[in-house]
Each structure stands twice: as C-alpha cells, then as structure tokens.
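Let's do one together. I've listed all components of the complex below, 904 residues spread over two lines.
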Amino acid sequence: MLKKCLIVILLLSAGTAQAALKIEHWTLDNGARVYFVKNQTIPMLDISVEFDAGAKRDPAGKAGTAALTNSMLARGLQASRLPGGETEPAMNEAQISDAFADIAAQRGGGPGTDRAGVALRTLSSPNERDEAVKLTARILAHPSMPEEFLQRDKARTIASLREALTKPESIASKAFWQLAYGSHPYGTETTVVSVESITRSDLLDFHARHYVANRAVIAMIGDITKEEAHTIARQLTSRLPQGKPLAAMPDLAPTRGAEERIAHPASQAHILVGLPALARGDTDFFALTVGNYILGGGGFVSRLTKEVREKRGLAYSAYSYFNPMEQAGPYQAGLQTRKDQASEALKVVRETIAAFLRDGPTEVELKAARDNLIGGFALRIDNNRKILDNIAVIGYYRMPLDYLDTWTANVAKVSVADIRAAFGRKLAMDKLVTVVVAGEN
Amino acid sequence: MKLRNRLLVLASFLSIITATAHVYAAAATHEFRLNNGMRIIVQEDKRAPTVAHMVWYRIGSIDEVSGTTGVAHVLEHMMFKGTAKLKPGDFSARVAALGGRDNAFTGKDYTAYYQQIEKSRLEEVMALEADRMQNLRMDKAEFAKEIQVVMEERRLRTDDQPLAKVYEALNATAYVAHPYRNPIIGWMDDLQNMTAADAFAWYERWYAPNNATMVVTGDVDAKRVRSLAEKYFGKIPTKTLPKSKPQNEPPQNGIKRVIVKAPAENAYVVLAYKVPTLRDVEKDDEAHALDVLAAVLDGYDNARLPASLVRTERVANSAGASYNGISRGPSLFLLDGVPAEGTTTEELEQRLRAEIARVASDGVSAAELKRVKTQMIASQIYKRDSIFGQAMEIGGMEMAGISSRLRDRIIEKLAAVTPEQVQAVAKKYFSDEQLTVASLVPLPLAAGAAEDRKPAAVPGLRH
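Okay, and this is what the predicted structure of the assembly comes out as:
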C-alpha cells in the first residue's frame, strides 16, 4: 500500500500546478452555492460547508448557542431512512470519531461570529472520500445532540470561559468587543450564565433554523473532477431542509470613543485600540489593506512596529489589522508592554495612528507596500489550505469570482490620496475605543 | 513575532516529524555540501511559484552555559540589526520589498532563519542571508533596545502564561545537569545582565558555514540552488567550532515534584518520564514504539486519553500524551491534563498513570494500532500541502542528527511496530524512578477583576 501511494504521487506531481486560479461556481437546485477549484497535484480533497450560523445569531440571553450547536454536531447521529429506502443506523460519539480516523479523514471547521460550519480534509481516493463525505453530510443534517454530552460540553465550555477570564489577553479582547459594539450582537459576550441557560431544545432549534440547504456555501479544492464536486455538493446538502429567511441584523450604533482600564496582576499591560470599521464588499477595502500594511500590518516594517518596538523597545509585538465582516468588523491596534510603561506605549500608538490619519503615508511607503503586497501575492494562494480559505470567503460574502485575479491590479491602483480618504472615512481619533488590562495602578 | 519552539510545541512538532514523509524523500530531494562544509538540502515541489528558504545553525539553548542562558535567542534577534552593508531593520525591509515574509526561530537544538518568497526572488534573499552569516554589526545602542524587546517577549510568553511557567519549572526540575533545564528564552536575570559582547561572542563562535544547513523547498531547480549557494556562501571561511560539553544528565533515582502557583482558573498536571531518544532509525525500535504509544493514547479524536478521561469518565477537561524522540539531547514522554470540576490534580495524575499501566498489562488492540498507522501514513500526504512545513521537517531532523532522507524509512519502521513492542515500552519506562510531576495551583484573581463584567454603560475613563 505504501509503495502504491508513492508511485501515484510521483506521477501526479510531475504534471504541476495552477498558473491562474480557476474558481468554478454554480448553485444547486436546493439553493446551496458551490465554489470549486480543481487541483490534482496531491491526492487529497479539502471541503468547507458554511452557514449563516455564527455567534451573531445567538438567541437573546443565550450567547454560546451557536458555538455549542457547532461543537455538538459530531456527538451523535440519529438513525435515518434515505429516500431510496436505505437506512442508516444511529452512531455515538466514539463511533463517529473512529469512523473518521479509520479513513484518516480530518474534521475541522468551527463557529465564527458571522459563519459556522464544518470542514473536511480527506484522501481523494473514492472509498475514503465517499465515506468521509457521507459522514460529514450526516453530521450536518442529523446530529442527535445527546443531553448527557450537552451537560458535559457545557461544563467544559464554562471551565474554559472561567479560564479565559483570568487571562489578560482574553479579558482585553472581550472588553474591546463590548466597548466597540455595545448591544449589537457582535458585542455580546458569552458568559457562564448564558451558557448555563442553554438547553438541548435550544440547540435543536438553532440547528434546524440555520443549518439549511438554501444558505449552505460549499467550498472545495482538490483532486476531483467538476462532476464529482457536483455530486459531493449534493450529497452534503440533500439531507438538509430549506430554511426560512432570517431576521435582518440590527444596524451598528454610531461609534463613540471610550476607554476602559481593568486591573490585573500580570507583569505586562495588554492594550487594544480600535473601532468598528470595515464590512465585506466595502469599496475602501484595498485602500485600507494597503494603508494598514504601512500603519500596522507589515510586520517588522510597519510604522507601529518601528515606533513601539524598533525605536523604543517597548513591546515584542505591536500591530494593527482590519477584520472585514458582514457588518463593519473592527480595526484593531494592539501591543503588550511592561505595566509601568503602559501609558507611554499607548501614547506612542495613538500618536502613530493620529499622524497617519493626518498626513497619510509617503510615496516611498506606498511603493514599499505595493512591492510587498503584489510581489508576495503568490504566497497567499500557494497551497490548498490557503486557497480553500480564500474561496470560502469569496463564496460566503458573495465577492466577485475574479477577486483573486484582480487583487494585484486593485492594490496597484491605490494612491496616497485614496489611503488618506479611506482612513478618514473609517477612523477618527475621538471615536477610538481603548482597553488597557493590567496597566499602571 | 519571532517564532520559537518551547517544550510543548517541540513535543507536538516531534510527533509530526516522526510521522514523516513517505512521499517526498524519494522524490526530488537533493543534498550537497559546499567546500567550506555548509550543507544544502533542496526539495523541488513545483505546485505553486513560491519558495521557502531557510538557513539552520546547529546551535541552540542546548549549547548555552550558566549566566548567559537565552543568548542563542538574543543573537537571533540581533541578526536583524544590521551588517557592514545594512542598517538596522534593512534586512526585513529588503525582504519585504521583494514581496517576501521573513522571520527566525530559536529552539533547544538550533537557530534558524527563513524567507518565504516568490520563486524569482531566491537569489536576492540568499545574498542577504549570506551577508549576515559573516558581516553582522553588533551596535550597543541597538542591543540595549532589543534586549528590552526580548524581556517583553519573555513576559508575554512565559511570565504571564501559567502553563509556560509550569513547563519551565518541569524542565528545571527534571534535569539537574543537562542544559535542557534552562528555558530557550533564558532566565530573566540572565537577560538583565546580558551584554552586546555576550551576543557577539556567540555569533563569532558559532555562526559559520560549517555549522549551517540551508534548506530550500518549493518551485526551484536543485542545480541552480547549488550554484547560487556556491556563489553567495561558498567563499565564507570555515571556522574551527568549539565542542560543546555534553553535560549529560546523571541518573534519576526517584520521583520529583514541583508546584507552580499562578493566576488561573483551572488546575493542570503534567507527568514527564525520561525515555530513549531516536539516534539510529534502524536500531532504536523502542523510540518508534514510544511514538506509537503516544499516538494510541492521544493520536486521534477518540484515542485512549480523550476517550476515557475526557469523554467517558469526565475526570478531565483535556488530556494528552506526547513524545519527542528527535532531539540532540534527552527525551521526555509527557502525559498531561486539565482536571474537570470535582477532580484533583492528584486524582488525574493517578488516572493518567493507570492508562499507561493498562497498556503495560493488557497491551493495545490491533484495531487501535491500525488506526494510528493509518493516520501516520495519510499525514504524509496531507503534509505535502505546505512547502514551509516540509522545510521545517527537513531542518528539524537534520539538526537532531537524523538524516531527512530517512523520513520514508521512519514511517516504515513505525508501520512495523507490533502490539508487543508498544506493551514492552509501556512496561519498561514508566516507573517512578524516572518521573517528574509538575502541577499548576491556580490562584483566583481578586474579586471584580473579571467574571461577568458589565459592559461600560457610560463611555469614559474607568479605574
């Protein structure tokens, strides 16, 4: 078996890879949207299936429902009868895990704020692939959500929540989202109380409402044909019901500046600064991406790293990023520094952001950013994992299919004036929220 | 931003390494040695037009001596601070201008530098890497700032991380003489007393082509890599390398225990047994059996520890096992877990020991073994997805003195491990004589610091 594997791979890798990335897209009769890239260089297949089932859809007072629903998908399967008359026996948690392990399939995925679903990595050989897809389809459609495992998983969730509430980085992050998003679902914190209130019927309701064929987004890359991809997409969604439309999300409240300081015995202060800024599909995306490379995204060469770390030795890591989401996701700058220099470091961050908003980048900085982003574009899509992540985002947020093809051209078009204008629209010093955990007392 | 390997990471990395590489070793891997002793290993993989370029120095915290622990890692930071030709920061700026990503990492056994780049840029990054192998400038003012950065890194990764402190205490307790007792990042006091001269002496002593291995993976032609390596590294003079003292660990003759108290919610316990290291892939079957034992215990979702301790008995919120057999120094087999509410660390320790005892008395089933081996073989295919991961594997093995050409052979050896061999190592190596136990006693935070904090009702300054 080993030897055979080796030969197959050698033959396949002799051919070689993607000159341009061809994303094929179609929609199934049941409404599921499929995004597929064929890549025959390795005999494996990566799949993600995602839904509008992230934490933002948690029922009021029951924050944590989306995450628990997702993590309970593989805790047990109901017996079911397929339209063809074939019956499938119930499976327990151990049987599901062993079934995946026996074919070396890896189950991944998880709950995010917007999206939640399941990911699968499997060998592309038909026996393994078919079995892995079938199991995944059953997990998505017929989880039994056993009560006894729910109690166990709730206890584990609560233990890890309590643990997170002792860690300065988690405390800071939770406080940041609350401060930036207030009562909007993006700002809702999962608490011990909210998890304790979740029942099995909450999970079943959430599952029935959100894991539905007409909102499924399937991304696939690997060693299969388009026809096989089509069959797999149908297998993954044919057991799912049609879902009723979901309520529109509330608008974000206007951003107001705020600051919160939280005491903690850690040796370092954790500082976060930012605000809600960027929604998927926003036309400022490229100007902000290029601008933030210069301000805080470009690793060792960004302004924040230079000012905080290279010039002053104040922190190991200083960064900023935009996290584009369905509704305006955050811009966030952050660092950690010895607690007696927290105020100094915060001042440097604020001044660095303020100077960037006031003056924008220089032409030299813009050229360096373009050189890096365009010259390094190949690194963004040089393996299946990265490509899957990209097409899953393109699919879920309905971005143009040529998003990756036009990415470098769009970066090249960005001017200094574009960056200043875009940052001016999205950031303002008096609207930033600031969180300092474990700062000076 | 510097990636660094600690015990935990190293341990998991190792179980990956040993489960290595059926598919490529025989494929397009090429090895050469330059006249000055520098080794070059190239693995062609033309799936995408990118390259991972790494230079590994066989010098890490294992080579440090008391008083200057952490110097290998500090020097790694200083390697970005300028050469005769480059100002501080210019190295990363040059790589960035080429569209590349660059960083470095220090481990117990090595220090390595890498760039990920589009394939046409290989020559330029190679020139940069060759420059800092021989022309580093150690500026005192730059050192004074950077040592502060390293201390911040230590605070971030160790001092404020309860589990990292547990592992630091574990290593310092398990080893009394061997340098694995010291943390890779160094003791804070050593960092506070380190000088630019210490770092530069390290560079002068150890940074030489005959102590370096270049690993290149991706869309390259091995012949061209060779000629570029000759052009840029070939003229760098060889140094006479001092021989590090072995500092072998004396035998342990009884259980050792250490307790760490730190702000946390959940307790934690880790058991570390001294076990053999893989030195000879053909002969050291016990190391292969230990690898399989770790996988039987924790190699897949429903492996023994998560299945019995977390899922069935619910005495733990998490439970795991790991073994690092590819290493210049000695190896530990780790069992660890977070006790569930109502369970103490002492009880969880007994349950973890009982799982080993169960293997020792009853052995493992053929079905379990088959499942474990299936994972190992498939992982060789999955790992081909990342050229960076492949370069990491090659370098890590080479630094430990195991030829990366043996990746296939290791998988064959793992596939040949029998239930009897697994049972035999479970019987032989898990006595109290060889055991160190470290546990975390969580200290609750002062009231009001965290739990169920109310959102800020009114924006403005608080506290």
